[in-house]
Design brief:
Low-confidence stretches: none
Largest sheet: 3 strands, parallel
Mean pLDDT: 93
CATH topology of the largest domain: Rossmann fold
Oligomer: single chain
Length: 491
Protein backbone atom coordinates (compact mmCIF):
# COMPACT_ATOMS: atom_id res chain seq x y z
CA UNK A 1 0.00 0.00 0.00
CA UNK A 2 1.54 3.28 -1.11
CA UNK A 3 -1.49 5.49 -0.47
CA UNK A 4 -2.51 6.44 3.05
CA UNK A 5 -6.11 5.34 3.49
CA UNK A 6 -8.10 5.69 6.68
CA UNK A 7 -11.69 5.03 7.63
CA UNK A 8 -14.30 6.24 10.05
CA UNK A 9 -16.86 3.46 10.58
CA UNK A 10 -19.66 4.62 12.92
CA UNK A 11 -22.54 2.37 13.94
CA UNK A 12 -25.86 4.16 13.27
CA UNK A 13 -27.43 3.25 16.60
CA UNK A 14 -27.66 6.82 17.87
CA UNK A 15 -26.33 10.33 17.33
CA UNK A 16 -22.69 11.23 16.69
CA UNK A 17 -21.13 11.77 20.12
CA UNK A 18 -17.91 13.57 20.93
CA UNK A 19 -15.89 10.37 21.27
CA UNK A 20 -16.82 9.33 17.74
CA UNK A 21 -16.35 12.87 16.46
CA UNK A 22 -12.85 13.00 17.92
CA UNK A 23 -12.00 9.67 16.28
CA UNK A 24 -13.29 11.00 12.96
CA UNK A 25 -11.27 14.20 13.43
CA UNK A 26 -8.01 12.36 14.12
CA UNK A 27 -8.50 10.19 11.06
CA UNK A 28 -9.33 13.27 8.99
CA UNK A 29 -6.30 15.19 10.23
CA UNK A 30 -3.94 12.31 9.47
CA UNK A 31 -5.45 11.80 6.02
CA UNK A 32 -5.04 15.50 5.22
CA UNK A 33 -1.50 15.63 6.57
CA UNK A 34 -0.34 12.64 4.55
CA UNK A 35 -2.23 13.49 1.38
CA UNK A 36 -4.31 10.37 1.87
CA UNK A 37 -7.99 9.55 1.76
CA UNK A 38 -10.69 9.14 4.37
CA UNK A 39 -13.39 6.55 3.77
CA UNK A 40 -16.74 6.82 5.54
CA UNK A 41 -18.28 3.43 6.23
CA UNK A 42 -21.60 3.02 8.04
CA UNK A 43 -21.44 -0.24 10.00
CA UNK A 44 -25.16 -0.95 9.98
CA UNK A 45 -25.16 -4.68 10.70
CA UNK A 46 -27.12 -4.20 13.95
CA UNK A 47 -30.47 -4.28 12.15
CA UNK A 48 -32.55 -3.83 15.30
CA UNK A 49 -30.83 -0.65 16.46
CA UNK A 50 -29.63 0.94 13.21
CA UNK A 51 -31.93 3.70 11.99
CA UNK A 52 -32.13 6.11 9.08
CA UNK A 53 -32.43 8.94 11.61
CA UNK A 54 -29.10 7.98 13.18
CA UNK A 55 -27.41 7.74 9.79
CA UNK A 56 -28.61 11.23 8.86
CA UNK A 57 -27.59 12.53 12.28
CA UNK A 58 -24.06 11.20 11.87
CA UNK A 59 -23.72 12.64 8.38
CA UNK A 60 -25.09 16.01 9.49
CA UNK A 61 -22.73 16.07 12.48
CA UNK A 62 -19.69 15.40 10.31
CA UNK A 63 -20.75 18.02 7.78
CA UNK A 64 -21.28 20.61 10.53
CA UNK A 65 -17.79 19.89 11.88
CA UNK A 66 -16.35 20.21 8.37
CA UNK A 67 -14.97 16.67 8.42
CA UNK A 68 -15.32 15.65 4.80
CA UNK A 69 -14.59 12.23 3.33
CA UNK A 70 -13.19 11.08 0.00
CA UNK A 71 -15.14 7.87 -0.47
CA UNK A 72 -18.49 6.64 0.76
CA UNK A 73 -20.57 6.48 2.68
CA UNK A 74 -20.40 2.74 2.19
CA UNK A 75 -22.87 0.56 4.08
CA UNK A 76 -21.55 -2.62 5.66
CA UNK A 77 -24.73 -4.63 5.08
CA UNK A 78 -24.27 -4.27 1.31
CA UNK A 79 -21.09 -6.33 1.49
CA UNK A 80 -22.48 -9.33 3.37
CA UNK A 81 -21.48 -11.62 0.49
CA UNK A 82 -17.85 -10.58 1.01
CA UNK A 83 -18.06 -11.37 4.72
CA UNK A 84 -19.60 -14.81 4.15
CA UNK A 85 -17.06 -15.59 1.43
CA UNK A 86 -14.26 -14.80 3.89
CA UNK A 87 -15.83 -17.10 6.48
CA UNK A 88 -16.05 -19.93 3.92
CA UNK A 89 -12.43 -19.35 2.98
CA UNK A 90 -11.35 -19.63 6.61
CA UNK A 91 -13.38 -22.85 6.99
CA UNK A 92 -11.91 -24.33 3.80
CA UNK A 93 -8.38 -23.45 4.94
CA UNK A 94 -8.93 -25.02 8.33
CA UNK A 95 -8.54 -21.64 10.04
CA UNK A 96 -12.10 -21.85 11.33
CA UNK A 97 -14.50 -24.60 12.38
CA UNK A 98 -18.16 -25.16 13.16
CA UNK A 99 -19.05 -25.17 16.85
CA UNK A 100 -22.25 -26.92 17.95
CA UNK A 101 -22.06 -26.06 21.66
CA UNK A 102 -25.36 -24.61 22.85
CA UNK A 103 -25.65 -21.46 24.89
CA UNK A 104 -26.86 -23.50 27.85
CA UNK A 105 -23.81 -25.77 27.70
CA UNK A 106 -21.46 -22.81 27.37
CA UNK A 107 -23.12 -21.00 30.29
CA UNK A 108 -22.81 -24.11 32.47
CA UNK A 109 -19.13 -24.46 31.60
CA UNK A 110 -18.59 -20.79 32.38
CA UNK A 111 -20.20 -21.16 35.81
CA UNK A 112 -18.07 -24.20 36.53
CA UNK A 113 -14.90 -22.39 35.45
CA UNK A 114 -15.79 -19.43 37.67
CA UNK A 115 -16.34 -21.73 40.63
CA UNK A 116 -13.03 -23.46 40.01
CA UNK A 117 -11.26 -20.15 39.29
CA UNK A 118 -10.18 -21.42 35.90
CA UNK A 119 -9.84 -19.79 32.49
CA UNK A 120 -13.24 -18.65 31.20
CA UNK A 121 -12.36 -18.98 27.52
CA UNK A 122 -13.89 -21.51 25.18
CA UNK A 123 -12.51 -24.97 25.97
CA UNK A 124 -12.26 -26.16 22.35
CA UNK A 125 -14.87 -28.94 22.58
CA UNK A 126 -15.71 -28.72 18.87
CA UNK A 127 -12.23 -27.78 17.70
CA UNK A 128 -11.19 -31.36 16.99
CA UNK A 129 -14.46 -32.78 15.64
CA UNK A 130 -13.87 -35.12 12.72
CA UNK A 131 -15.55 -34.30 9.36
CA UNK A 132 -17.99 -37.20 9.83
CA UNK A 133 -19.00 -35.89 13.27
CA UNK A 134 -19.58 -32.41 11.85
CA UNK A 135 -21.75 -33.83 9.04
CA UNK A 136 -23.79 -35.88 11.47
CA UNK A 137 -24.53 -32.87 13.66
CA UNK A 138 -25.46 -30.79 10.63
CA UNK A 139 -27.76 -33.52 9.33
CA UNK A 140 -29.37 -33.66 12.75
CA UNK A 141 -30.18 -29.96 12.40
CA UNK A 142 -28.06 -28.87 15.34
CA UNK A 143 -27.37 -25.11 15.07
CA UNK A 144 -23.75 -24.01 14.98
CA UNK A 145 -21.57 -20.94 15.04
CA UNK A 146 -18.29 -20.57 13.21
CA UNK A 147 -15.22 -20.09 15.39
CA UNK A 148 -11.79 -18.94 14.35
CA UNK A 149 -9.13 -21.52 15.15
CA UNK A 150 -6.42 -19.70 17.07
CA UNK A 151 -3.03 -21.23 16.11
CA UNK A 152 -1.48 -23.50 18.71
CA UNK A 153 1.82 -21.68 18.83
CA UNK A 154 4.39 -20.93 21.45
CA UNK A 155 5.26 -17.33 22.09
CA UNK A 156 3.43 -14.08 21.71
CA UNK A 157 0.96 -12.51 19.35
CA UNK A 158 1.37 -8.79 18.84
CA UNK A 159 1.48 -5.64 16.78
CA UNK A 160 3.12 -2.23 16.91
CA UNK A 161 0.84 0.57 18.02
CA UNK A 162 1.67 4.15 17.03
CA UNK A 163 0.31 5.46 20.33
CA UNK A 164 0.98 2.70 22.85
CA UNK A 165 4.07 0.99 21.43
CA UNK A 166 4.43 -2.76 21.16
CA UNK A 167 1.31 -4.68 22.23
CA UNK A 168 1.70 -8.40 22.91
CA UNK A 169 -0.13 -11.30 24.49
CA UNK A 170 0.48 -15.03 24.74
CA UNK A 171 -1.30 -17.13 22.12
CA UNK A 172 -2.69 -19.21 24.96
CA UNK A 173 -4.56 -16.16 26.25
CA UNK A 174 -6.70 -15.96 23.11
CA UNK A 175 -9.51 -18.48 22.91
CA UNK A 176 -11.22 -19.56 19.69
CA UNK A 177 -13.63 -16.72 18.98
CA UNK A 178 -16.90 -16.66 17.09
CA UNK A 179 -16.88 -15.05 13.63
CA UNK A 180 -20.33 -16.17 12.38
CA UNK A 181 -23.47 -16.41 14.53
CA UNK A 182 -25.80 -19.41 14.54
CA UNK A 183 -28.21 -17.41 12.34
CA UNK A 184 -25.53 -17.20 9.65
CA UNK A 185 -24.68 -13.53 10.25
CA UNK A 186 -20.96 -12.69 10.45
CA UNK A 187 -19.79 -10.76 13.53
CA UNK A 188 -18.19 -7.34 13.63
CA UNK A 189 -14.72 -8.85 14.14
CA UNK A 190 -14.78 -10.48 10.72
CA UNK A 191 -16.84 -7.88 8.84
CA UNK A 192 -14.56 -5.09 9.95
CA UNK A 193 -11.42 -6.84 8.77
CA UNK A 194 -12.92 -7.88 5.44
CA UNK A 195 -14.10 -4.32 4.79
CA UNK A 196 -10.73 -2.84 5.72
CA UNK A 197 -8.96 -5.25 3.38
CA UNK A 198 -11.35 -4.48 0.53
CA UNK A 199 -11.05 -0.72 1.12
CA UNK A 200 -7.24 -1.00 1.27
CA UNK A 201 -7.10 0.69 4.68
CA UNK A 202 -3.49 1.44 5.60
CA UNK A 203 -4.00 3.04 9.04
CA UNK A 204 -6.62 2.35 11.71
CA UNK A 205 -7.10 5.07 14.32
CA UNK A 206 -9.68 4.04 16.91
CA UNK A 207 -10.37 3.91 20.63
CA UNK A 208 -8.46 1.82 23.14
CA UNK A 209 -11.67 -0.07 23.88
CA UNK A 210 -11.04 -1.91 20.58
CA UNK A 211 -7.69 -3.32 21.66
CA UNK A 212 -9.09 -6.76 22.52
CA UNK A 213 -10.65 -6.87 19.07
CA UNK A 214 -7.39 -5.83 17.45
CA UNK A 215 -5.46 -8.76 18.89
CA UNK A 216 -7.96 -11.16 17.36
CA UNK A 217 -8.17 -9.25 14.12
CA UNK A 218 -4.41 -9.53 13.68
CA UNK A 219 -5.02 -13.28 13.39
CA UNK A 220 -7.75 -12.73 10.81
CA UNK A 221 -5.52 -10.53 8.66
CA UNK A 222 -2.86 -13.22 8.78
CA UNK A 223 -5.29 -16.02 7.92
CA UNK A 224 -6.79 -14.05 5.05
CA UNK A 225 -3.34 -13.35 3.62
CA UNK A 226 -3.55 -9.57 4.01
CA UNK A 227 -0.89 -7.17 5.35
CA UNK A 228 -1.53 -5.58 8.73
CA UNK A 229 -2.54 -1.92 8.72
CA UNK A 230 -0.84 0.48 11.09
CA UNK A 231 -2.79 0.68 14.36
CA UNK A 232 -3.14 3.69 16.62
CA UNK A 233 -5.38 3.24 19.64
CA UNK A 234 -6.44 6.57 21.06
CA UNK A 235 -7.34 7.16 24.72
CA UNK A 236 -10.88 6.93 25.97
CA UNK A 237 -12.80 10.05 26.93
CA UNK A 238 -13.98 9.90 30.55
CA UNK A 239 -16.21 12.08 32.69
CA UNK A 240 -15.10 13.72 35.92
CA UNK A 241 -15.83 10.49 37.81
CA UNK A 242 -13.53 8.54 35.45
CA UNK A 243 -16.45 6.76 33.77
CA UNK A 244 -16.44 6.39 30.00
CA UNK A 245 -18.72 8.92 28.37
CA UNK A 246 -21.66 7.37 26.60
CA UNK A 247 -24.96 8.34 25.05
CA UNK A 248 -26.86 6.21 27.53
CA UNK A 249 -25.18 7.52 30.68
CA UNK A 250 -24.61 11.18 29.84
CA UNK A 251 -27.38 12.13 27.46
CA UNK A 252 -27.21 14.79 24.79
CA UNK A 253 -24.43 16.78 26.46
CA UNK A 254 -21.99 14.36 24.77
CA UNK A 255 -23.72 14.69 21.38
CA UNK A 256 -22.24 16.79 18.59
CA UNK A 257 -25.65 18.21 17.72
CA UNK A 258 -25.91 19.58 21.30
CA UNK A 259 -22.97 21.91 20.58
CA UNK A 260 -24.31 22.94 17.20
CA UNK A 261 -27.67 23.77 18.80
CA UNK A 262 -25.95 25.70 21.61
CA UNK A 263 -24.09 28.04 19.31
CA UNK A 264 -20.60 26.62 19.03
CA UNK A 265 -18.41 27.53 16.09
CA UNK A 266 -17.62 24.31 14.17
CA UNK A 267 -13.85 24.69 13.94
CA UNK A 268 -13.64 25.94 17.53
CA UNK A 269 -15.29 22.70 18.63
CA UNK A 270 -12.86 20.70 16.46
CA UNK A 271 -10.01 22.60 18.09
CA UNK A 272 -11.34 21.56 21.51
CA UNK A 273 -11.84 17.93 20.44
CA UNK A 274 -8.31 17.68 19.08
CA UNK A 275 -6.88 18.71 22.46
CA UNK A 276 -9.06 16.13 24.20
CA UNK A 277 -6.38 13.46 23.86
CA UNK A 278 -3.64 15.09 21.76
CA UNK A 279 -1.12 17.83 22.39
CA UNK A 280 1.42 19.61 20.18
CA UNK A 281 4.16 19.17 22.78
CA UNK A 282 3.88 22.70 24.16
CA UNK A 283 1.26 24.93 25.76
CA UNK A 284 -0.32 26.07 22.53
CA UNK A 285 -4.08 25.54 22.34
CA UNK A 286 -5.39 27.56 19.38
CA UNK A 287 -4.84 26.27 15.85
CA UNK A 288 -6.28 27.16 12.50
CA UNK A 289 -7.42 24.26 10.37
CA UNK A 290 -4.18 24.22 8.37
CA UNK A 291 -2.01 24.69 11.47
CA UNK A 292 -3.71 21.71 13.12
CA UNK A 293 -3.14 19.54 10.06
CA UNK A 294 0.54 20.46 10.00
CA UNK A 295 1.03 19.94 13.74
CA UNK A 296 -0.90 16.68 14.09
CA UNK A 297 1.04 13.44 14.58
CA UNK A 298 -0.02 10.05 15.87
CA UNK A 299 2.95 10.01 18.22
CA UNK A 300 1.65 13.07 20.10
CA UNK A 301 -1.65 11.37 20.97
CA UNK A 302 -1.83 10.80 24.71
CA UNK A 303 -1.56 7.30 26.12
CA UNK A 304 -3.81 7.99 29.10
CA UNK A 305 -7.53 8.74 29.05
CA UNK A 306 -8.74 12.31 28.67
CA UNK A 307 -11.32 13.99 30.91
CA UNK A 308 -14.38 15.69 29.51
CA UNK A 309 -15.12 18.15 32.30
CA UNK A 310 -18.74 18.96 31.58
CA UNK A 311 -20.95 20.73 34.13
CA UNK A 312 -24.66 20.08 34.28
CA UNK A 313 -25.50 22.69 36.91
CA UNK A 314 -23.91 25.87 35.55
CA UNK A 315 -26.03 27.51 32.81
CA UNK A 316 -23.09 29.67 31.74
CA UNK A 317 -20.49 26.91 31.60
CA UNK A 318 -22.77 23.99 30.78
CA UNK A 319 -19.91 22.04 29.28
CA UNK A 320 -16.16 21.68 29.58
CA UNK A 321 -14.78 25.17 30.43
CA UNK A 322 -12.00 24.69 27.89
CA UNK A 323 -14.59 24.17 25.16
CA UNK A 324 -16.26 27.44 26.18
CA UNK A 325 -12.93 29.28 26.38
CA UNK A 326 -11.85 28.14 22.92
CA UNK A 327 -15.23 29.10 21.48
CA UNK A 328 -14.96 32.54 23.10
CA UNK A 329 -11.55 33.00 21.54
CA UNK A 330 -12.89 32.34 18.06
CA UNK A 331 -15.90 34.59 18.65
CA UNK A 332 -13.53 37.46 19.47
CA UNK A 333 -10.85 36.88 16.85
CA UNK A 334 -12.50 35.51 13.73
CA UNK A 335 -13.01 37.89 10.82
CA UNK A 336 -16.22 39.77 11.52
CA UNK A 337 -17.55 38.82 8.08
CA UNK A 338 -17.32 35.13 9.06
CA UNK A 339 -19.00 35.82 12.38
CA UNK A 340 -21.66 37.73 10.48
CA UNK A 341 -22.63 34.67 8.43
CA UNK A 342 -22.74 32.44 11.51
CA UNK A 343 -24.81 34.94 13.50
CA UNK A 344 -27.17 35.35 10.57
CA UNK A 345 -28.24 31.73 11.00
CA UNK A 346 -28.95 32.35 14.68
CA UNK A 347 -30.95 35.52 13.97
CA UNK A 348 -32.94 33.77 11.26
CA UNK A 349 -33.76 30.94 13.64
CA UNK A 350 -34.84 33.45 16.31
CA UNK A 351 -36.94 35.46 13.86
CA UNK A 352 -34.64 38.49 14.21
CA UNK A 353 -33.03 38.61 10.78
CA UNK A 354 -33.66 41.68 8.67
CA UNK A 355 -32.77 41.39 5.02
CA UNK A 356 -31.35 44.91 5.19
CA UNK A 357 -28.49 43.48 7.27
CA UNK A 358 -27.25 41.89 4.05
CA UNK A 359 -27.79 45.10 2.10
CA UNK A 360 -27.91 48.75 3.07
CA UNK A 361 -27.48 48.07 6.79
CA UNK A 362 -24.62 45.54 6.40
CA UNK A 363 -21.97 47.91 7.75
CA UNK A 364 -24.14 48.66 10.79
CA UNK A 365 -24.76 44.93 11.26
CA UNK A 366 -21.07 43.97 11.19
CA UNK A 367 -20.02 46.96 13.31
CA UNK A 368 -22.64 46.06 15.92
CA UNK A 369 -21.53 42.44 16.06
CA UNK A 370 -17.94 43.60 16.49
CA UNK A 371 -19.05 45.90 19.32
CA UNK A 372 -20.93 43.29 21.34
CA UNK A 373 -19.03 40.04 20.71
CA UNK A 374 -16.35 40.64 23.35
CA UNK A 375 -18.43 39.36 26.28
CA UNK A 376 -20.27 36.56 24.50
CA UNK A 377 -19.59 32.85 24.88
CA UNK A 378 -21.54 31.27 22.01
CA UNK A 379 -23.34 32.31 18.85
CA UNK A 380 -26.64 31.96 20.72
CA UNK A 381 -25.73 34.99 22.84
CA UNK A 382 -26.19 37.33 19.88
CA UNK A 383 -29.89 36.45 19.71
CA UNK A 384 -30.40 36.36 23.49
CA UNK A 385 -28.04 38.67 25.38
CA UNK A 386 -27.73 40.81 22.24
CA UNK A 387 -31.44 40.80 21.36
CA UNK A 388 -31.88 44.49 22.24
CA UNK A 389 -29.79 45.46 19.21
CA UNK A 390 -32.15 43.67 16.83
CA UNK A 391 -35.62 43.83 18.40
CA UNK A 392 -37.81 45.59 20.94
CA UNK A 393 -38.99 42.48 22.77
CA UNK A 394 -35.77 41.95 24.69
CA UNK A 395 -35.67 40.77 28.29
CA UNK A 396 -34.46 43.04 31.09
CA UNK A 397 -32.51 40.90 33.53
CA UNK A 398 -33.61 41.05 37.15
CA UNK A 399 -30.23 41.83 38.71
CA UNK A 400 -29.52 45.06 36.78
CA UNK A 401 -33.19 46.01 37.03
CA UNK A 402 -33.01 45.88 40.83
CA UNK A 403 -29.53 47.39 41.12
CA UNK A 404 -29.59 50.09 38.44
CA UNK A 405 -33.25 51.07 38.03
CA UNK A 406 -35.65 50.18 40.83
CA UNK A 407 -33.15 51.36 43.45
CA UNK A 408 -33.51 54.91 42.04
CA UNK A 409 -37.21 55.78 41.62
CA UNK A 410 -36.26 59.23 40.31
CA UNK A 411 -35.13 57.57 37.07
CA UNK A 412 -38.82 57.40 36.12
CA UNK A 413 -38.51 61.15 35.48
CA UNK A 414 -34.83 61.57 34.76
CA UNK A 415 -34.47 59.07 31.89
CA UNK A 416 -37.52 60.33 29.95
CA UNK A 417 -36.12 63.87 30.43
CA UNK A 418 -32.82 62.67 28.96
CA UNK A 419 -34.78 61.12 26.09
CA UNK A 420 -36.28 64.51 25.32
CA UNK A 421 -32.80 66.06 25.18
CA UNK A 422 -31.61 63.33 22.83
CA UNK A 423 -34.63 63.89 20.61
CA UNK A 424 -33.74 67.59 20.23
CA UNK A 425 -30.10 66.92 19.21
CA UNK A 426 -29.17 68.13 15.74
CA UNK A 427 -26.87 65.14 15.33
CA UNK A 428 -26.87 62.08 17.59
CA UNK A 429 -23.16 61.55 18.29
CA UNK A 430 -21.47 59.47 21.00
CA UNK A 431 -19.66 62.46 22.46
CA UNK A 432 -22.75 64.66 22.68
CA UNK A 433 -24.88 61.81 24.08
CA UNK A 434 -22.35 61.30 26.87
CA UNK A 435 -22.12 65.03 27.57
CA UNK A 436 -25.88 65.35 27.96
CA UNK A 437 -26.04 62.32 30.28
CA UNK A 438 -23.32 63.73 32.51
CA UNK A 439 -24.91 67.17 32.40
CA UNK A 440 -28.20 65.71 33.67
CA UNK A 441 -26.40 63.86 36.45
CA UNK A 442 -24.75 67.08 37.56
CA UNK A 443 -28.09 68.91 37.55
CA UNK A 444 -29.67 66.21 39.70
CA UNK A 445 -26.60 66.04 41.94
CA UNK A 446 -26.02 62.33 41.42
CA UNK A 447 -23.06 60.37 40.19
CA UNK A 448 -22.96 59.96 36.38
CA UNK A 449 -23.08 56.21 36.90
CA UNK A 450 -26.63 56.43 38.23
CA UNK A 451 -27.82 57.87 34.92
CA UNK A 452 -25.55 55.87 32.66
CA UNK A 453 -26.05 52.49 34.36
CA UNK A 454 -29.80 53.04 34.57
CA UNK A 455 -29.82 53.92 30.90
CA UNK A 456 -27.84 50.75 30.06
CA UNK A 457 -30.36 48.54 31.80
CA UNK A 458 -33.37 50.25 30.22
CA UNK A 459 -31.86 50.29 26.73
CA UNK A 460 -30.13 46.87 26.63
CA UNK A 461 -31.55 44.86 29.55
CA UNK A 462 -28.00 44.01 30.63
CA UNK A 463 -25.81 44.73 33.64
CA UNK A 464 -22.61 45.17 31.65
CA UNK A 465 -21.40 45.41 28.10
CA UNK A 466 -19.51 47.70 25.73
CA UNK A 467 -19.09 51.40 26.39
CA UNK A 468 -22.60 52.74 27.00
CA UNK A 469 -22.06 55.65 24.68
CA UNK A 470 -21.08 53.31 21.85
CA UNK A 471 -24.14 51.24 22.65
CA UNK A 472 -26.40 54.29 22.22
CA UNK A 473 -25.10 55.07 18.76
CA UNK A 474 -25.31 51.40 17.73
CA UNK A 475 -28.94 51.09 18.81
CA UNK A 476 -29.76 54.50 17.33
CA UNK A 477 -31.44 57.63 18.59
CA UNK A 478 -35.04 56.70 17.76
CA UNK A 479 -34.96 53.40 19.60
CA UNK A 480 -32.99 54.83 22.54
CA UNK A 481 -35.47 57.69 22.97
CA UNK A 482 -38.41 55.31 22.74
CA UNK A 483 -37.00 52.98 25.40
CA UNK A 484 -35.98 55.73 27.82
CA UNK A 485 -39.48 57.21 27.65
CA UNK A 486 -40.91 53.85 28.76
CA UNK A 487 -38.80 53.73 31.96
CA UNK A 488 -41.84 54.27 34.17
CA UNK A 489 -43.34 50.98 32.96
CA UNK A 490 -40.60 49.13 34.85
CA UNK A 491 -41.71 50.36 38.27
Amino acid sequence: MTETRLRFPPSPTGYLHIGGARTALYNWLFAKKTGGKLILRIEDTDAERSTEESINGILDGLKWLGIDWDEGPYFQTRFSDDHLAAARKLLDQGNAYKCFCTKEVLDAKREAALAAKQNLGYDGTCRHLKPAEVRAKEEAGIPFVVRFRVPERQGTLGYDDKVLGRIECDYREVDDFVIVRSNGKPLYLLCNVVDDIRDKISHIIRGQDHMTNTTRQVLLYEALGAPLPVFAHIPLTLDTKKAKISKRSHGEIVAVHFYREHGFIPWAFNNFLALLGWSPGNDREIFTRQEMIEAFTLERINKSSSIFNFRKDDPKFFTDPKAIAINEHYLRTMAIEEIGELVRQELEEAGLWNQEYAGEKRQWYLKTLDLIRERFHTLKDFATLGRAYFAEDFRIEDKPLQKNVLKFPELQDWLPALADRYARMDEFSAEEAERLARELAEEKDVKPGVIINGMRTVVTGQLAGPSMIEVLTAIGRDRVVQRLRRTGELF
